[in-house]
Specification:
300 residues, mainly alpha, Ribonucleotide Reductase, subunit A, 10 helices
Length: 300
C-alpha cells in the first residue's frame, strides 16, 4: 500500500498487501453471494436450540451458569447472539464509512482499491444480513455504546487507529464465527450466518493484517515517543472497551434475568470470562505486539 511517504521495503519472501489484494479480489469474485436470495430465513426460531454456543456465552464457567434452567440458558443464548450480531453490525458501520473514504486515494494502490470495493460490498451485505436476523427474531438492534471524541492526530495516527479498530471487530468476531459455524447444537440460521460471515472475513483479515503491518512499520519510526505511547495506550484501552461490550446488561434484562448490572460486574470479573477474552484475543494481540503497537499483552 502507498502512503504519503515511500513505504518501507518488504522482505523478498513476503507478499505486500497490494499483491495479496489481487488474489483476494479474485476470490471475492468467485465466491460472490446475494444477501437477499442466498439465505433461507425460517419463519421463526425453534426455541429448542442454542443461538450462541454455551462455551461462548458470557456466563459460561461461572457460578451463575449453574443456577440457570435449560430454558433460561436457551433464552439467554438468543440475546447473547443478538448482542454479538449487533456488535458486529455496529462495528462494521464505521468500517464501511472509513473504507469508502479511502477509495481512490493516494494512500491506496490501484490493486488495493479494487479489493476495497469487494471489501465494502461484503461488509454492507453483512450489515443487511445481521440486521435481518435481529429484526426478524429479536425485534431490535442493540445500540452502539462507544462514543467518538474529537481530537487531533499526528501524521498517520488516525490511519493506523482505523485499521486497528477494523481488525479488533473482525478478529474477535471471527473467533466466535469459527466456533459456531459448524456447531450442531445451534439454530441452523445462526450456524449459517456465522459461516457466511467467516468466509468473507477470512479475506478481510488477511488483507487487514498485512496492511496494518506495513502502516505500522512506516509510521512507528516516524513518530516520537509521545505519539507511540499514546497509540499503544489507546489500543490497550480500546481492546478492553471492546470486550466490555460483550457483557451488555440489556441482554440480561431481555432474557428475564434479575440484577442485570450486578450480573455484568460479576461475570466480567470471573476467571472463566478472562480466560475466554485472552484466548480469543491471543492471535490479534500477538500481531499488535509484533507490529510494535503494543509493548506487552494488556490485561483484558
Amino acid at each position: 500500500m502507498q502512503t504519503e511517504s515511500p513505504p518501507p521495503s518488504t522482505p523478498r519472501h513476503a507478499k505486500s498487501a497490494s499483491e495479496v489484494a489481487v488474489r483476494l479480489t479474485k476470490l471475492s469474485r468467485e465466491r460472490a453471494w446475494n444477501v437477499y436470495t442466498d439465505i433461507a430465513w425460517p419463519e421463526a426460531l425453534s426455541g429448542e436450540r442454542y443461538c450462541m454456543a454455551p462455551e461462548l456465552m458470557s456466563v459460561w464457567g461461572t457460578e451463575y451458569w449453574d443456577t440457570l434452567t435449560e430454558e433460561q440458558r436457551l433464552r439467554l443464548s438468543l440475546y447473547e447472539c443478538a448482542n454479538f450480531f449487533s456488535l458486529t453490525l455496529q462495528g462494521e458501520r464505521p468500517l464501511v464509512a472509513g473504507l469508502s473514504d479511502r477509495l481512490y486515494s493516494k494512500r491506496v494502490t490501484p490493486e488495493g482499491t479494487e479489493y476495497l470495493h469487494h471489501f465494502l460490498d461484503e461488509e454492507n451485505k453483512h450489515m443487511v444480513m445481521f440486521g435481518m436476523f435481529l429484526n426478524r427474531y429479536v425485534g431490535k438492534v442493540y445500540p452502539e455504546k462507544k462514543v467518538a471524541l474529537e481530537r487531533t492526530y499526528a501524521k498517520g495516527e488516525e490511519e493506523v487507529m482505523f485499521f486497528c479498530k477494523a481488525l479488533v471487530v473482525e478478529e474477535l468476531g471471527d473467533y466466535y464465527n469459527i466456533k459456531m459455524m459448524n456447531d450442531a447444537r445451534l439454530e441452523p440460521i445462526a450456524r449459517e450466518l456465522n459461516d457466511v460471515h467467516h468466509r468473507d472475513e477470512s479475506r478481510h483479515i488477511a488483507f487487514g493484517r498485512l496492511h496494518l503491518s506495513e502502516l505500522s512499520a512506516h509510521w512507528l519510526e516516524q513518530w516520537d515517543d509521545e505519539v507511540r505511547t499514546r497509540v499503544q495506550t489507546w489500543l490497550a484501552q480500546y481492546l478492553k472497551a471492546s470486550w466490555a461490550d460483550f457483557y451488555n446488561p440489556s441482554m440480561y434484562r431481555d432474557a428475564g434475568l434479575p440484577d442485570a448490572f450486578k450480573l455484568r460486574t460479576a461475570v466480567m470479573a470471573h476467571p472463566a470470562s478472562a480466560l475466554l477474552r485472552n484466548t480469543a484475543s491471543a492471535k490479534l494481540v500477538r500481531l499488535f505486539v509484533d507490529c510494535g503497537l503494543l509493548t506487552e499483552v494488556p490485561a483484558l
